[in-house]
Amino acid sequence: MVVQAAQVSSKGENNPETVPERLIRALMAGKHGSPFEHNAFTFFVEAPIFVFREWQRHRISSFNEMSGRYTELLPKFYAPSEDRPMVNLGTKMKPDFTRATPDVWLGVRWQLGSVALESWVSYQRMLSNGVAHEVARMVLPVNIYSQMYWTVNARSLMNFLSLRVESDDSHVRSYPQLEIEYGAAQVEALFAVQMPATYAAFVAGGRVAP
């Protein structure tokens, strides 16, 4: 579809002599982005709400998220593993994280766990007293998990990957938060399989969306 969409503007029909990989590289290099919009990926995503709030900033796509107004959220909370770098030695805009000492990490895990437990008990108590879901959910922290379907075309997907995956191939460093990078890396692996020529041109061009 990338090739067909690009050719219709000048040929009016498909040209059997076209070499798809060469045309796709030329489109990417020339920043001709619209041919990459004639396709769609749909992903089912489960992640903490703080990850969703970054994910959903990519507004040129479609989202349907589990609604905390109409359904009871799941008792699933995120806490970082010990090898997750969490002490910032850099700046807010250009962070440089290193691993915490075992004592600091255990403190983080304990704080997150105790808040999750206390908030979940409060949430359940309010629901059992007839409080509406949309009010009871206010007590829950942003590390509780949610679910959504995300539909996106390849052009917007490449923009997402350029900002949410740290790579030595990137022309511009984006400093993504590690938790959204976990999800974005899985998205990238599927994109590379489904559209290999487009993915190769994206990487070769410095991971900049056309």
Structure in words:
This protein has 210 residues and is an alpha+beta fold. The protein has helices at residues 2-8, 20-29, 49-55, 102-128, 133-136, 154-164, 178-194, 196-204, and strands spanning 41-48, 62-65, 87-88, 97-98, 145-152. It is flat and about 65 Å long. The model has no long low-confidence stretch (mean pLDDT 95). Strand 3 and strand 4 (97-98) form a beta hairpin. The longest helix is centred in the middle third of the chain and has 27 residues, at 102-128. The chain is built from eight helices and five strands.
Oligomer: single chain
Dominant shape = flat
Q: How many extended strands?
A: 5
Mean pLDDT: 95
Give helix and strand order, one letter per element, not per position: HHEHEEEHHEHHH
Beta-strand percentage?
A: 5-15%
Biggest sheet architecture? 3 strands, antiparallel
Low-confidence stretches: none
The percent of residues in helical segments reads: 40-55%
- Which structural class best describes the helix and strand composition? alpha+beta
| Neighbour order of strands in the largest sheet | 1-5-2
Radius of gyration: 21 Å
CA-CA gap between termini: 16 Å
- Tally of separate helices: 8
